[in-house]
Structure formats: structure tokens, C-alpha cells
Design brief:
By secondary structure, the protein is mainly alpha-helical. It has a domain of about 100 residues. The protein is built from five helices and two strands; from the N terminus they run ββααααα. Strands 1-2 form a two-stranded parallel ribbon. Helix 1 runs parallel beside helix 3, helix 3 runs parallel beside helix 5 and helix 4 runs antiparallel to helix 5. The model has no long low-confidence stretch (mean pLDDT about 80).
Length: about 190
Amino acid sequence: MVESPPIEAIEAPLPALPVPAATPPTEGTTPQVAALPVIIVTPPPITEPPTEDQQMLALLSDLQRYGSMQGDELKHELAAATQAFSRQRTDVNRVRLAVLYTLLRASPQDDQRALQLFENVAKSAVPASPIRHLAAVLQAQVVERQRAVHDEQQKADAAIQKLEALRAMERSLLRDRVRSGGGGGSAGAGGSGR
């Protein structure tokens, strides 16, 4: 009986091995052949692209992580997200980049950039896509924040106008008082002399 060596998995093929010669049979025996090692080559694993659910989970994880970051960390993440977006213009990368713009707000145009990215997701994604729904919710929040900032700015402008009008009235009253002789009316001490 011939025993086989154990099977070993390797990743790369080995160079050809010399084949040992069979031992010549002697009278009354059967010829024996030396056992050769068995080589099994395993192919590299096939990596499938992540599913939309996996992408969504990764995105939500990143968004949660971004919420706890400050200044320099956000700038670093923005640079990394910008590079990732330039390599792969996917909806997930658009949302990631847009959220970083809204969190950092380094320039007044950042919210506009974020809204444009969210709009691109809304146009390109499948209607039932969870990424599209997330982008729509985030877009609505940015629009609402812009509206609130605009309303506060209008209220501040109105308050400043009222303050300026009150100052103008005060200056006018002071001028009138100075012109009329300095203030306390001079009505009167004319007597009959009795």
C-alpha cells in the first residue's frame, strides 16, 4: 500500500521538482514509485464591490465620527474625502464630502458646495436608494439652516436700522435743544412789579 503525503495549500506555484526514478522490481515484488508531493494552488479571494447597504453603513459610521471632530481633524478628513471623490465620483463620496463642507464651513460657499453635491446625488441615484434619501434629508437640513441664518440676518439688519433711526432722532433733538437756547425754556419771570 502506498501512503500519500498530506496536502498543503500554498499561494504561489513551486518550481518543477525532479521526478525520482522508480526502483527496479526484484523477483516476486511489485515495482514501487516514490510519492510526489501534491501541490494545490489557491486563487486569491475574489473581492466583490460592497453592497449598497454596506456602503450606507460605512457612510453612517463616518458621519457619526465626523460629528465629534473639531477644526484640524475636519480639515484633514475634508482633504481625504476630496481625494477619494476625485478618484471615485460615487454618491457615497459626494455625501461624505458634502457633510464635511457643512461641518467645517470655512468659507461662505461651503454650504453652496454641499447643496450642489446633494443635488447631484438626487439626480444620479436610484429613486429608492437609501443614499439618495439620506442626501435629501441632509439637503433639507442645510436649506433650513440657511433659511434660519438668513432670517436672523434680516432681524439683525432691522434692529440695526431701528437703532440708527433712534440715534438720528436723538441727534435731531439735541440740535433742536441747542438752537432753542440750551434747554430749559425761558418763559417767564416777567412780573408786574408790585
